[in-house]
Amino acid sequence: MGSFGGKVWSNDTIKHQPVVFVHGLTLRAGVFIPHYYWFLNKGYSPGELYATTYADGGITPFWSKPMYCADVKQVRNFIKQVHEYTNSSVDVIGYSMGTAISRKALLGGKCVDTGEDLGPPLTDIVDTFVGVAGVARGYEQCPTTFPACNLINGMNCGSRYLEDVNGQDKKYEAQHSYYIYSIDDTVIGTQCCGHLCPEVKNADGFSQHRVHNHGSIFTETKDIQYEMIVNHKVIQPRGAF
C-alpha cells in the first residue's frame, strides 16, 4: 500500500490529534496497517490516521539507500498537509530509518546532500514525536563503503546528516518526544559514536525492552506508543520487557 488517511465524509469531526506514521528503509506505508486498525479500535477515525510511502518503497536494496533530501521533503510536506487538512496539531511516529527521516523533516534547515533550505522547524504543529527502533544516532554496523552508510547522508553515526539532526541544543521534533527500543535489536545495534543508537536527544522519556527484535519492538508496543502520544507518559511494557 502506497498511502492511507483522510476523512470518510467532508464534515467528519477531528476528535483526536491526527497521527502521521513514517516507515523505515525498504518498507512502505502498508507496514502500518496493523497500527491503523489498532488505533481505530481505540476510537480514532480514518481521518486521524495517515501514512505515505517515500522513496521507491523498497526497490532499491537496503545497503544502497541513503537518506535523500527528496525523502525528507516528501515527509515534511506530508506532515504539513495533514496539519492543514485537519486544522490540528499532529503526532508523528517514526519507525527505524523513518525516525531519522522524520527528525530532519521536522527540523528543517539545509539538506546536507543538496544544500536546499527546507524552512524553519515544524515544532509548533507537532504535539508528540515517537521514535521506535529508530536510527536516531545511527546504525551500529554501517561501513562507509556502502552508499547507505556514506558520511554525507548515510546512517553511519558520523554522517553530516546525523550530526545535523543531533547537533541541536533544544528539542525541535515536537512539544513532547519519546523513543522505544530493545537492547536485543541486532539490526540497528546499540552503540553509535558514544551514544545509544535509538536515543532521541532531549526526549522526555523512553521505553527500554529486552527480547524484542527490530520487528517485534515495532509491532508489539502499540499500547506504549499510544500512551506516549495521547497521555504523554511511559507505561510499563507487557510480556517481553
The average pLDDT value, as a whole number, equals: 96
Structural Rg: 16 Å
Structural class: alpha/beta
CATH class: Alpha Beta
Q: Report the major sheet.
A: 7 strands, mixed
The CATH topology assignment is Rossmann fold
The fourth-level CATH homologous superfamily is Alpha/Beta hydrolase fold, catalytic domain
Poorly predicted regions: none
How are the strands of the largest sheet arranged?
1-3-2-4-5-6-9
> What is the string of helix and strand elements?
EEHEHEHEHEEEEHH
Number of distinct helices: 6
Helix content range of the residues, please?
Answer: 10-25%
Give the total of domains: 1
Organism: Panagrolaimus sp. PS1159
Protein name: Triacylglycerol lipase
Description of the structure:
The protein is an alpha/beta fold. It has one domain: Rossmann fold (3-Layer(aba) Sandwich). Helices cover 24% and strands 16% of the residues. It has helices at residues 33-41, 69-86, 97-107, 160-165, 216-219, 222-231, and strands spanning 3-4, 19-22, 49-52, 90-95, 126-132, 176-182, 191-192, 195-196, 205-209. The strands form two sheets. It has a seven-stranded mixed beta sheet with strand order 1-3-2-4-5-6-9, sandwiched between helices. It is globular, with a radius of gyration of 16 Å. The two termini are 31 Å apart.
